[in-house]
């Protein structure tokens, strides 16, 4: 079984590409488990979540997990791990959720110091390792944002987030069999795929 990493900027087409990839891996015969890390706290996010939900096939199962993704997946995959295809969308929000939770616990939502960076960094690493451990033996597709090429955030908490997400992306990509970057809706293969077709690890995905 394999780990596929799909990254890109905002509205780059990465979620659609990852959904097609997961469908291709499932081949119509394997269950797909969609892990949603978004927390729809406002109208804009609720609309975005609804659009994603309407786009997915009706037979895909959805697990909502803003944190503790590994534990949620262990429960959801009980007895079906070897057959399932797991799609996590997205790592970016998982990292954001970790950072905001830790900042809230430390009372540092407006400012950030070394302790926040250290603690949030540890928590993110643990979240990613738990995710990868819980999905051992499955095909896993991880979607994430690439934020390191954008404008440098003007506030420290934003810069901490940028750094944590970059490290988490590297942590997942290093373990992946295939990885691709979506640019303007087009996949650019980074590892393990077909550079001509933009196929990230499966024929015709």
From TrEMBL:
<comment type="pathway">
    <text>Cofactor biosynthesis; adenosylcobalamin biosynthesis; adenosylcobalamin from cob(II)yrinate a,c-diamide: step 5/7.</text>
</comment>
<comment type="similarity">
    <text>Belongs to the CobU/CobP family.</text>
</comment>
<comment type="function">
    <text>Catalyzes ATP-dependent phosphorylation of adenosylcobinamide and addition of GMP to adenosylcobinamide phosphate.</text>
</comment>
<feature type="binding site">
    <location>
        <position position="64"/>
    </location>
    <ligand>
        <name>GTP</name>
    </ligand>
</feature>
<keyword id="KW-0547">Nucleotide-binding</keyword>
<dbReference type="InterPro" id="IPR027417">
    <property type="entry name" value="P-loop_NTPase"/>
</dbReference>
<keyword id="KW-0418">Kinase</keyword>
<dbReference type="GO" id="GO:0005524">
    <property type="term" value="F:ATP binding"/>
</dbReference>
<dbReference type="Pfam" id="PF02283">
    <property type="entry name" value="CobU"/>
</dbReference>
<keyword id="KW-0342">GTP-binding</keyword>
<dbReference type="GO" id="GO:0009236">
    <property type="term" value="P:cobalamin biosynthetic process"/>
</dbReference>
<dbReference type="GO" id="GO:0005525">
    <property type="term" value="F:GTP binding"/>
</dbReference>
<keyword id="KW-0548">Nucleotidyltransferase</keyword>
<protein>
    <recommendedName>
        <fullName>Adenosylcobinamide kinase</fullName>
        <ecNumber>2.7.1.156</ecNumber>
        <ecNumber>2.7.7.62</ecNumber>
    </recommendedName>
</protein>
<dbReference type="InterPro" id="IPR003203">
    <property type="entry name" value="CobU/CobP"/>
</dbReference>
<keyword id="KW-0169">Cobalamin biosynthesis</keyword>
<feature type="binding site">
    <location>
        <begin position="53"/>
        <end position="56"/>
    </location>
    <ligand>
        <name>GTP</name>
    </ligand>
</feature>
<feature type="active site" description="GMP-histidine intermediate">
    <location>
        <position position="52"/>
    </location>
</feature>
<dbReference type="GO" id="GO:0043752">
    <property type="term" value="F:adenosylcobinamide kinase activity"/>
</dbReference>
<feature type="binding site">
    <location>
        <begin position="8"/>
        <end position="15"/>
    </location>
    <ligand>
        <name>GTP</name>
    </ligand>
</feature>
<dbReference type="GO" id="GO:0008820">
    <property type="term" value="F:cobinamide phosphate guanylyltransferase activity"/>
</dbReference>
<keyword id="KW-0067">ATP-binding</keyword>
<feature type="binding site">
    <location>
        <position position="89"/>
    </location>
    <ligand>
        <name>GTP</name>
    </ligand>
</feature>
<comment type="pathway">
    <text>Cofactor biosynthesis; adenosylcobalamin biosynthesis; adenosylcobalamin from cob(II)yrinate a,c-diamide: step 6/7.</text>
</comment>
<keyword id="KW-0808">Transferase</keyword>
<feature type="binding site">
    <location>
        <begin position="36"/>
        <end position="38"/>
    </location>
    <ligand>
        <name>GTP</name>
    </ligand>
</feature>
